[in-house]
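Lab notes, practical 5.
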Amino acid sequence: MKILVIGGNGFIGSRLVMKLRDTGHSVRVVDHGEPRHDLNWRNVDYLRISLSDRFALTSVFEGVDVICHCASSTVPSTSNLDPVRDIEQNLIGAINVLDAMRASNVRRIVYLSSGGTVYGNPKVVPIPEEHELRPISSYGVVKVAIEKYLLMYQALYDLEPVILRPSNPYGPGQVTSGLQGLIGSFLGKLAEGSELPVWGDGEVVRDYLYIDDLVDLIRLAIEQPRTGIFNVGSGTGCTVNEIISELRRVTGLEPTIRRMDGRSFDVGRVVLDITRAKHAFGWTPSVGLDEGLDRAWQWVKQHQS
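Output from the prediction step:
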């Protein structure tokens, strides 16, 4: 199968590309940046193309069986600062992808939405896919809008979309200096001896999913002829304070905490109901938080050294 991964240089996308290549698929990457240097890109067709370039997209989609869209140029903590930029780069970029698919006669797409932002502050936990969508960040609003366009193109043009709503992925390969990814960021700061920033009382709850478990589900969604919307998480939640306690155990280091006021765009509690994905794909997350944090810490130490 020939698979095109949009955003294949990012944390999730790059791990997915390696998995697909190593399981025998032909993989093409579309990304705006240079290939990251911690991975071997052999036998991967890597193209530096912007999603704003509609002509280029149409040309590289030719002969592709499935597209996996992993790209986003914003994160929840920055998206509200410039919603127009968020719309221009992410929403319009996604529509360009859909139009290029039509022009190239590519029907199947796996889209990575966001299980952590599209629901807003939930009325019920664990959160099912049928929950009302009430995002409180531009990031989440744009993700919902892209989902709606995917469903519109399905109804009008026979597109075959699989919409995945991942929780909070973490693990080896996660950038430690970025604005998104609490575990990766905290591990990087611990390795360099910096303080850990905690907004509010540290009781915000998130559903942390090890990267290999997420990649396994994405691969199944690519390979199996299903459509629909699926939560992808661990099905359990941890507070920021609990994560800090676990990191203290894993690293053997005593972190310095910098407490700051809570942020209005932070959803209070996110734990995803993953029953639908389990039944549809025969998938179950297999790496627990203890093991996942240990692996992530070993990667950070090797990477930063």
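Observations recorded by the TA: The mean pLDDT is 95. The two ends are 38 Å apart (CA to CA).
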